[in-house]
Write a structure and sequence with these properties.
With 862 residues, the chain is an alpha+beta fold. The chain has 3 domains: 49 residues, no CATH class; 277 residues, Protein tyrosine phosphatase superfamily (Protein-Tyrosine Phosphatase, Chain A), CATH 3.90.190.10; 280 residues, Protein-Tyrosine Phosphatase, Chain A, CATH 3.90.190.10. The strands form 13 sheets. The chain has a 9-stranded mixed sheet with strand order 18-19-20-28-21-27-26-25-24, with helices on both faces. Strands 31-32-33-39-34-38-37-36-35 form a 9-stranded mixed sheet, with helices on both faces. β3 and β4 form a beta hairpin. α16 crosses α17. The longest helix has 44 residues. It is globular.
């Protein structure tokens, strides 16, 4: 055969093969099909037959999609599907919003910010408040006609007609004297105009009557109305129509097939199943390469290396892992089993699927779950989708046949508008039957970011057995959890598991692949690292994916495994029984040189692993507080609070953060005493965030600025626009004042102000008594509203108070304690908490004294 004769984009023997997508449509090499000058945009490899992987575009796929695409991008042009993330401009999403715009696709216009300072490109907030003539949280509401000036805080003159004035400078739009003069001259003209209007209206009425009669005649001749068909998206047995009525027609007409996967998703479609496309490298693996182990002590440097260039190392390594349906999953695709799957494209592999043995060999032996090997043993885990209403009996059948003692649930039942999982357990104290399995809910404990439930499970002919469910409730729908929170959750699961329990641990989220894979990798690799001193994240993900498709769905989840392992290996949570804690602290606080004490060593480790933040983590604070002292303690953007009430001349920023207690997320608001000019913002903070209790860390007679917001007993104070009334004051172990905060047009708010009677910093018995009294008072307050904790700088003694409060809650809930982990967790919200050894020692001393006092009370009451 003469290959040279090949034409019309063919090559090979008998010219039987078609050329790929060569640049400019040129003829490929007549023998091997190679493209001499490369590929046209959207294709790569030598023969230009393969489309660019998701996350790449352009000629030979050399270019990366912008990391700011809301999903991925067009393989040819790089235009982002689904638009841009907040703060970035379409179509390429590689330019920040102009100074006048913000939000998704820069589609929202900034308000009128003071001095023309650009609004925040993500939130739209004005850093310095509003310009003259505007008000509102986004400074886009013009002043009412009777007000003017910055934030509309000034009233127009009564000499103005209707008291209306220029919103910027306050000049009357028309003076009353001028208006009277014009009225006298214009009266004859007005009469003529009114007569003309009456004539025009009469003519219009006649025209309307004639038109309506004609329209009724025409309607009688029209054919019957046929409603337009709605487009539908099918998700197994779920049909939803008109899923996104607000999309513009022009936008939908130009979508590619890839984009369609991310538009009009029904609530039941899980982000974990779809978000894999966000990795800009897509699926780049060709041949699987072995990734070497690394030592657990080196994990910090490994993370630093992979984080360079905006996490480029994590993105590349994640993209190199085998992805997609790699083994047969024919059973899950059978028509009889399709309705049992929560998602259309997530099936269990046939070779590792869980078979319901009671129904083995029949169509009823199917459940969407797989066995996964751990580093300890085979089939150490079951990875499952979240149960559907139609699969509840199958789920509990699986629990019983494998004698599962622990269930790890990593999704809420509903997140936003999305149904993620059907409730498969009875409410506390109730009993339900699922198929042949009876389940009774025996216990339920709520913590800050998870819930622990205990069930008694019974199926004939087995004896009843206990199953514990650990339900992580704060995993963000479109993100990843805080690594330390995940480590603490995992540690509590591990402490509950008996060494004799060889049953598989059942782990599920919604699809059973993303969050589920993240948790299983953390658990398996942590135990492997403790045993051998080395781990291999990439190879273990390959192991998981060999038994269940696509375990770990995003590079962010992949990175979270590294970050969580780092936190776990730096210092493992170690809760101690209260009896052991008392013995340990008694020894720790003995009079030995401070530099050699156990307390000193523990404190030094705490400082060593304290999180370090960059300027980017305080971006909003630095924009809102341009004149900063070098020693100023700033709120992290991630945990900062904002003011929503509208007060003239005041912005939305305040130096305050939110922190969690042992049993409630967002339990504390932490801030500093306000100077006179910020007293109104302090009252806004309390009312906007509905705080009913304020704990002051100093006697207020030593805080001069307190007189600007706290009136004397039985008196009141105006802090415009608020009136503060001090209704009562008591002086027991803690000095308390009950104040009412009033604002015109709003319901008043009663707030309890508590202050110590003496300086709580002292470590002698009387000194800890003052701090313990403050904490005991706060513990007795209602749980519904956050507690505002205040000190001179918003950190000193605030961290001590929160740590003692959380430690006593832990003792009450679980009869154990871990001061080190409690403080460590608080420092993720504000690293300046407990920043001295004296404060750290005061926590130990106070909790120790609390335990002694409690045991003495028990003894005396016997």
């Amino acid at each position: 055969m003469d290959f040279a004769e090949c034409r019309s984009n063919t090559y090979g023997p008998a010219c039987s093969n078609s050329c790929g997508h060569c640049l400019n449509g040129e003829q490929c090499h007549h023998v091997n099909g190679g493209c001499r000058n490369g590929c046209e945009a959207g294709y790569y490899l030598n023969m230009c037959e393969k489309e660019c992987p998701l996350g790449r575009y352009g000629r030979n796929c050399w270019r990366r999609c912008s990391k700011n695409c809301n999903r991925s991008c067009d393989r040819k042009t790089g235009v982002c599907y689904g638009g841009c993330r907040d703060g970035w401009q379409p179509p390429m999403c590689n330019r920040e919003c102009d100074d006048s715009n913000y939000g998704r696709n820069c589609s929202k216009s900034c308000g009128q910010c003071y001095k023309g300072v650009p609004c925040d490109k993500i939130t739209g907030l004005c850093p310095l408040g509003c310009a003259s003539g505007y008000e509102g949280i986004y400074c886009n509401k013009p002043c009412d006609h009777t007000f003017y000036g910055r934030n509309c805080n000034l009233t127009c003159s009564t000499t103005c007609v209707n008291q209306s004035c220029n919103a910027t400078n306050g000049k009357c739009l028309k003076e009353k004297a001028q208006a009277n003069e014009e009225k006298r001259h214009n009266t004859p003209v007005a009469i003529g105009v009114c007569f003309g209007i009456v004539v025009v209206l009469a003519a219009a009425v006649v025209v309307i009557i004639v038109y309506k009669r004609k329209r009724r005649q025409d309607q009688n001749q029209l054919p019957p109305h046929k409603p337009k068909r709605c487009m539908q998206y099918e998700n197994t047995d779920l049909h939803l129509s008109n899923l996104n009525k607000n999309k513009q027609g022009a936008e939908s007409s130009a979508r590619t097939e890839t984009d369609k996967a991310y538009v009009d998703l029904p609530p039941d479609v899980d982000i974990d199943e779809k978000i894999h496309q966000e990795n800009p490298y897509g699926d780049m693996y060709v041949n699987e390469l072995y990734c070497p182990d690394f030592l657990t002590k080196d994990i910090g440097s490994v993370i630093m290396k992979k984080k360079k260039a905006e996490n480029d190392g994590f993105k590349r390594e994640y993209a190199s892992l085998p992805y997609g349906e790699r083994y047969s999953c024919d059973i899950g695709k059978l028509n009889v089993n399709v309705p049992k799957n929560r998602f259309k494209a997530t099936f269990p592999y046939d070779h590792s699927r869980v078979i319901l043995r009671r129904n083995a060999g029949s169509a009823d032996d199917y459940i969407n779950a797989n066995y996964l090997d751990g580093n300890e043993r085979k089939n150490e885990y079951i990875a499952s989708q979240g149960p559907k209403e139609s699969t509840l009996a199958d789920f509990w059948e699986m629990v019983c046949q494998d004698k599962v003692k622990q269930i790890i649930m990593l999704t809420n039942l509903r997140e936003g508008r999305k149904l993620k999982c059907h409730q498969y357990w009875p409410n506390l104290g109730n009993k339900e039957t699922y198929g042949t399995v009876s389940v009774k809910s025996m216990q339920e404990k709520h913590y800050a970011f998870y819930i622990v439930r205990k069930f008694q499970v019974f199926q004939k002919p087995m004896n009843p057995f206990m199953v514990t469910q650990f339900h992580y409730t704060t995993w963000p729908d479109h993100g990843v959890p805080d690594p330390l929170c995940l480590v603490i959750f995992h540690s509590n699961v591990s402490h509950e598991k008996s060494n004799e329990d060889l049953a598989p641990t059942l782990v599920h989220c919604s699809a059973g692949i993303g969050r589920t894979g993240t948790y299983i990798a953390l658990d398996s690799l942590y135990h492997a690292g403790k045993r051998s001193g080395r781990v291999n994240v990439a190879e273990y993900v390959k192991t998981m994916r060999a038994n269940r498709m696509n375990m770990i769905q995003t590079y962010e989840q992949y990175m979270t495994v590294f970050l969580a392992l780092h936190e776990a290996f730096k210092a493992t949570p170690d809760p101690q029984a209260t009896v052991k804690f008392r013995q340990r602290v008694s020894q720790m606080l003995k009079d030995v040189p401070a530099n050699y004490s156990g307390l000193r060593k523990e404190y030094e480790l705490l400082r060593k692993i304290c999180p370090v933040f960059t300027n980017d983590d305080y971006k909003l604070a630095k924009q809102s507080m341009p004149k900063l002292r070098k020693d100023a303690i700033l709120p992290l953007d991630k945990y900062g609070l904002y003011l929503s009430s509208n007060v003239p001349t005041r912005g939305s920023f305040i130096n305050a953060i939110v922190a969690s207690s042992y049993i409630r997320d967002s339990a504390f608001i932490v801030t500093h005493y306000p100077p006179q000019e910020d007293a109104v913002d302090f009252l806004r903070l309390i009312t906007d965030h509905e705080s009913s209790t304020v704990i002051c860390m100093d006697p207020l007679n030593t805080i001069n600025s307190s007189k600007f917001w706290l009136p004397l007993p039985s008196s009141e104070k105006i802090v415009s626009p608020y009136k503060v009334v001090n209704n009562s004051s008591k002086d027991n172990n803690v000095k308390t004042s009950v104040i009412s905060i009033h604002k015109k047009g709003e319901k008043s708010r009663d707030v309890m102000i508590a202050e110590p009677k003496s300086d709580p910093k002292s470590q002698n018995v009387n000194g800890t008594s003052s701090l313990r009294s403050l904490v005991s008072f706060a513990l007795s307050c209602p749980d519904e509203s956050p507690i505002t904790v205040v000190s001179k700088d918003g950190a000193s003694m605030c961290g001590v108070f929160c740590a003692v409060f959380n430690s006593i809650q832990q003792i009450t809930m679980d009869d154990n304690i871990d001061v080190f982990t409690t403080v460590r967790q608080l420092q993720t919200r504000r690293p300046e908490f407990c920043s001295t050894q004296d404060e750290y020692g005061l926590i130990y001393q106070t909790v120790y004294d609390h335990l002694i006092a409690v045991s003495d009370n028990v003894y005396y009451n016997q």
